[in-house]
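Page 37, top half.
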Amino acid sequence: MATLLRQARLDMTAPWACNAAAARVSLTRAIVQIAGSFSVISAPRFELATKHSAALGGANFSYIETLWTEAQQNAACNAIHDGSSRLCRWLLQCADRIGSEHLLVTQEFLAEMLGVRRTTVTLLAQELQKRGILRYSRGRITILDRAALEACACECYNVVRNISLGAVPGVSRQSQII
């Protein structure tokens, strides 16, 4: 599973992997984690735009590579790191994406994102709250001590963040974090 940045592209079907005459079917499922606005462009129009703009095509290719790298890193992270480290990583990545330390997210959703039980999320969030790192109440999380949260996160946060920072040229550092 990978998450998308604010400037994201769904249906990551690579144009070179398909027969142009064949119908394309997306094998992805998109979940909106945090409310916001978005724009839509049809796949054929987007593909045409990437063919006519080397810059857009290059940025799209870099984005796809970064997304795949993040998915691989997340798979490894889920296999080797504990729930607390993964929760901290996920909260940091989410805060980076929306540019805010205030997150609206349920325990049920966090449990799904982390691959743990809802009760596990409750216990992990309570511990972070007791340590003064965050405040959590009824689907509202506020990061109170970002440095402490980063110290609790696994190294995957910085690995993905550093890879992502170089992924989309011309986009601000805050917007690039995947």
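Page 37, bottom half:
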Amino acid sequence: MVGGDIKRQGCGCRTEQRAADKLRPRLLLVDDDEALLKAFSRLFAGRFEVIAVTDPTDALHLLESGVHVDALLTDYVMGSMNGLQLLERVRDAFPKVARFLASGGGLSGEEIERHRQDGLLLAFLPKPLESGAADRFGEHILNMIRRHEQEGSNPVVQPVAR
């Protein structure tokens, strides 16, 4: 969590804003880099109700406490556990949550594809983001949430164009 608080983007105090948020899917972002977390929160706030945390353990606690999320986008390289470890725990305990991974390195294309094929993640977002990549990836997340809900598990998908 950022400063011990859950950060929500796109979530206001007015009743009409809360009603609008209920219509948008909820995206849980996990990245230990606060600056990137804030940037991702801003980028995805137009399409999702965003919950952002800096610690993967906090993400698990949120889910375990009953907070509903439609999708999880996590960084790969983090301190307490890496993104793949988080995705494994979420897959096992919360299989209805659509799972996505972002990283600036540390994984080969073959590793990413293997994890996609075995259902651990739906798609991979390479960092740094190229112009327009967040918008395309946001649309991809929405489509994958729909497919995930229909199929009940992570469908095998093709990589997202950078």
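Margin note: The domain at 7-151 is CATH 3.40.50.2300 (Rossmann fold).
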